[in-house]
Amino acid sequence: MTGSFEERVAATVAAVRPADAAAMAAARQRQARLTKPPGSLGALEDLSVRLAGIAGVCPPPLPEPAALAIFAGDHGVHAAGVTPWPQEVTGQMVANFLAGGAVVNAFARQVGAAVTVVDVGVAGPLPAAPDLRDLRVRPGTGNLLTGPAMSRDEAVQALAAGITVAGELCDGGARILLCGDMGIANTTPSAALVAAFTGTAPGAVTGRGTGVDDATYARKVEVVAAALARHRPDPADPVGVLAAVGGLEHAALAGYLLAAAARRVPVVVDGVIAAAAALAAAALAPAAVDAMVAGHLSVEPGAGVALAHLGLAPVLDLGLRLGEGTGAVLALPVVAAAVRALREVATFDSAGVTEK
Ligand SMILES: Cc1cc2ncn([C@H]3O[C@H](COP(=O)(O)O)[C@@H](O)[C@H]3O)c2cc1C
Ligand SMILES: O=C(O)c1cccnc1
């Protein structure tokens, strides 16, 4: 690893290129020649075209093997009473991920995705574990209600942590990356990020997270509104927005998304935390969106606002509101099937099937 964190982020941003138009045109043409009525694969056809654009070749490679990184961090805004769950659940769930006992572990086994857990900012001590990637920037953010969540340098360091992890997974052979998060209270900074990057009112992007009651929900909206009023985050300064109202896992996820795009590897976005990070990544490098696949539409309202802003259509809509990468992992077989259609289905000419 060479260069400062800042240089590594700048180099990654500079390496992001838009989707390849020729490969996309070839994929569209090929979809029209496959032995099926044109358009009959609906959204899978668009997905296959996008994947050809990311890879720069038609047909694109199979997205195998798949690797999920779960970025974990804690949040100073927990002190404002925005979630009923104690902060130590973040670290306890990290241990659960490492033991293979969380929902996302079960789903990852179903689809054959490897799971990596990354500590970018858990507040308490974690047991040393060979499978835990320790890239902790600081033990939790500051309370965004009373000051910045972190310094600009810390945001850049967290971005670089995400870049490092994406690079390691791709160098290890991953052909598709999946996003995951763990951080009690993190739907609050997610709402603040979505509001800041899209200019949407706090009430329209704040949700009930783990399932907060009416009083907590009202406080959450007030916290998001007060944070925006205090910091006045400028969407033209994405690092400043992340530092003021984001989280360490959000910044790391943004770096991870940028690095996937820079390497022309597709990356599946999960729920509202990853979608908020995707807004930051897109603000740093607009073409990074071309490498992103929206795995699902989270119940959390900020997720839909963020995906609409990015122009991404979610693959699944299952009423999920968990995070961890569960929605990204579940979307993987659909993404792979879209690629298989382009790679494996016969054309009218090759199969000798008569056209209408
Ligand atoms: C046991 C448990 C497992 C989780 N897995 C993901 N989350 C999700 O819920 C948290 C965000 O919701 P809020 O902002 O309301 O705290 C994050 O940790 C997110 O990953 C979980 C939450 C809990 C309690
Ligand atoms: O959208 C998500 O991923 C989400 C929603 C609620 C709680 N945690 C995560």
Globally, the shape reads globular
In CATH terms, what is the architecture of the largest domain? 3-Layer(aba) Sandwich
Biggest sheet overview? 6 strands, parallel
Total DSSP helices: 15
The succession of helices and strands, N to C, reads: HHHEHHEEHEHHHHHEHEHHH
CATH class membership of the largest domain: Alpha Beta
- Average pLDDT number: 98
How many DSSP-defined strands?
6
Low-confidence segments, ≥5 residues, pLDDT <50? none
**Structure classification:** alpha/beta
Query: Which oligomeric state applies?
Result: single chain
The end-to-end span amounts to 57 Å
Strand order of the largest sheet: 3-2-1-4-5-6
| Helix content, binned percent | 40-55%
How many discrete structural domains? 2
Gyration radius, to the nearest Å?
20 Å
Bound molecules: alpha-ribazole-5'-phosphate, nicotinic acid
Q: In the CATH scheme, what's the topology name of the largest domain?
A: Rossmann fold
Estimated share of beta-strand residues: 5-15%
Q: What is the CATH superfamily of the largest domain? A: Nicotinate-nucleotide-dimethylbenzimidazole phosphoribosyltransferase (CobT), large domain
Task: Write a short abstract of this structure.
The chain has 356 residues and is an alpha/beta fold. It is 51% helix and 9% strand.
Give structural notes.
The protein is of the alpha/beta class and 356 residues long. It has 2 domains: 69 residues, 5,6-Dimethylbenzimidazole Phosphoribosyltransferase, Chain: A, domain 1 (Orthogonal Bundle); 267 residues, 3-Layer(aba) Sandwich (Rossmann fold), CATH 3.40.50.10210. It is built from 15 helices and 6 strands. Strands 3-2-1-4-5-6 form a 6-stranded parallel β-sheet, with helices on both faces. The radius of gyration is 20 Å and the shape is globular. The N and C termini lie far apart (57 Å). The site of alpha-ribazole-5'-phosphate has 18 residues, from helix 4, strand 4 and helix 7. It catalyses: 5,6-dimethylbenzimidazole + nicotinate beta-D-ribonucleotide = alpha-ribazole 5'-phosphate + nicotinate + H(+). GO terms for molecular function: nicotinate-nucleotide-dimethylbenzimidazole phosphoribosyltransferase activity. Keywords: Cobalamin biosynthesis, Glycosyltransferase, Transferase.
